[in-house]
């Protein structure tokens, strides 16, 4: 199965960061009041649940792992997310490797060794109903000791899965943290609500037309009228916390310059703004990457109607000169040549 993401601390993401939604459309929705109570929702998984305060309090030690492959119809697991506890010692090892191991293959091999020691606590797994194995085979796919079927909806089967309590190899302080997190499992299970999973493609194209009134990092007002001067505009949603977002930005800077003759524009939307510190970080990232295209500070409208519709960052999509969303929604990073190919395919749709 294809791993979609790792989250090891808020400092670095390996593939891309899954974003809990706070509303998007009229289906799965987490209100502001619910968010303040600890609710999380993932539209692409069709799940909504409530977590205790300790999960946020000890956020740096929470390890997230994506499950399944929504694009491979032969995979039994369509989607899912696993929550685990990663000790401070393992985090230190990870950061040491990130800083001192130059060879990428060796670095990721050693990352895997660290990740194998994470104490997985619970996961929510969405199976394809027509591919789900026999009940006694479920644990082989989830790697969890306890697997409870919660619901069946629209061709998907939802399981809540968790492991036995295991605080071995943790110091006394971490044992208390781990126990507090583990003790919240049953509350999370009880709060779980399920919906039909909706892909970012389905969620964003349901918006049809993108409208906004935002400010760029220099304080200039920018609205959707910016689209009218271009045949096609690529919207790249990224975050200052996201390693893959930052790694692809030099390519996007070159792509922007090379696609001018095609009358194609690029606009960035910074997902973790408005926030003064993050805006300053964004300015530094943009400067270091050589980016010349416009980058916008998000607002509540964009968060609700766009950012909360996607599975993670970076995500890119396209609009025509009228702001109509066209073509494929791209989740995750791509090379410059891959983006060029997607742009070429999308331009053909406009003719």
TrEMBL record:
Q: Name one Pfam family in it.
A: AhpC-TSA
The coiled-coil regions, if any, are: none
Query: Which GO terms of the molecular function aspect are on file?
Result: antioxidant activity; isomerase activity; oxidoreductase activity
Tell me which domain of life the UniProt entry assigns to the organism this sequence originates from: Bacteria
Matches recorded under PROSITE patterns: THIOREDOXIN_1, THIOREDOXIN_2
Is Magnesium included in the keywords of this UniProt record? no
Provide the alphabetized UniProt keywords: Isomerase
Which residues does the UniProt record annotate as the domain Thioredoxin? 203-348
Q: Which PANTHER family match?
A: PROTEIN DIPZ (PTHR42852:SF13), THIOL:DISULFIDE INTERCHANGE PROTEIN DSBE (PTHR42852)
Stated name of the protein:
Thiol-disulfide isomerase or thioredoxin
Native species: Sporanaerobacter acetigenes DSM 13106
